[in-house]
Amino acid sequence: MKHKTLLAAVILALAASVMTCDDTTVCPTMTEEPPFGTYIDEPILLAASDPVAPSETAADTFTFDMTAAGLVRDGTFNDFDITYVTQTANDVDVLVLNHEDGTWHILSSMQSRTVPGSDPVTQRHLFSARGLEAGKYISDGGTMQLRGAIDSPRVRALKMNTDYVAIPVHTVYPFGFTAMPGCLTSDGENLYVVSPSNTLVQPRAVYRVSPDGGITLQFDSPAADCYGMTYDGESFWFAGNNKRIFKTSTDGEPLCEFSYIDQLFEGAGGLGWGLDQLLVIENKAARDISHARIFGADADGSCDAGFALVTFTFETTGNNGAGIAWNGSRFLTAFHDSLFTFNTYGSLAGTYAFPVEGIGDITWDGESIWVLNTGPRGVESKDPVITRLRMR
Fold first, then answer.
1. Residue 381 and residue 237 share a domain
2. What is the CATH number of the domain that holds 141?
3. Does residue 330 share a domain with residue 214?
4. What CA–CA distance (Å, rounded) separates 215 from 11?
């Protein structure tokens, strides 16, 4: 598959509503060359202040004297993270005052999470992962104001690597859901994600995300739950539930489907395309084996047969596969918070600790890895983002 150069853009100040681009609406274009992304082996979070508690509280409004944080005093901060307690697992409406225009902007909403619960839960958010540009929320006097029915809020000032590239996922879904997408892939120009299984969006939708974060295409996913997605240069492939793999056109038209072979693997942890065939990483959680395995499958032959025609398989050194990609010479696989690379003989070629956490899926755009995750290491955040990382 031939890849085109994928232009990346840091999305730090997106509106709370979802932007949809169609034939009558022109998506915004970048006027400056965007940063290319951090290297996979370099830190993203460079410094963090101690948590700052409210200096004033009036009803559900909290004022923070952020001059208590050295990064704010010296002007070197470029992000904030926040923790607070809610009385159930569901998040609540939390607003933050924009001191540039005097309006309250949404930091979190009741629709952000759909998991019920009865015990207090600590919620965690990163401003940039919510599309908020940190500098707009500090007054000339160095204060920040939050509003919401929350307990024990704490804010930290952060200094992030300026090459950090991430698209906030909450801008992709209707209602601002913050659940992790089911899958991620790239066609070399755009990214594609599938709405997660724990949202109210039915059926599951495939969203094309342009480099500036706008949605330019949406169609129904053939899989009720997505466990892997890839692009072969002409069509999309999805690993779904009920041990099925689906093929669709680029606008979602069903083209074929086939089943897994039970004796060979159960439960995909990711789907990729390389060596002119489908690549499947096993989700170890679905089988009682020592390590997850990688499989190749003859795509067209499997469609004709109605079941997976496996071309090769080898056991990896990781567990719980969370994505697979091919960079032209190596298999790239995600396990927990690490990237493992393997050569075509199945030998381990390299291991990297991701500078981000909560890996959901990975894809290769022809130059870099894009990673679904919940934010940089050391940051208080559960908001999923799509981060671009370079390989040396």
1. yes
2. 2.60.120
3. yes
4. 13
150 three-class SS: coil
CATH number, residue 178: 2.120.10.30
Instruction: Please check whether residue 153 is in contact with residue 54, taking contact to mean a CB–CB distance below 8 angstroms.
Output: yes
How far apart CA 14 and CA 127 sit, in angstroms, is 11
Helices (H), 210-346: 299-305
Question: pLDDT of 243-300, one tens digit each?
Answer: 899 999 999 999 999 998 766 676 788 999 999 999 999 887 556 667 888 999 999 9
* C-beta separation of 241 from 260 below 8 A: no
| Token pair recorded at residue 75 | 């002007």
Q: Are strands 293-297 and 38-39 parallel, antiparallel or unpaired?
A: unpaired
Which pLDDT band, with edges at 50, 70 and 90, does 201 fall under? low
Residue 234, domain member (yes or no)? yes
Are the C-beta atoms of 81 and 374 separated by less than 8 Å? Answer: no
How far is the first Cα of the chain from the last one, in angstroms, to the nearest whole number? 22
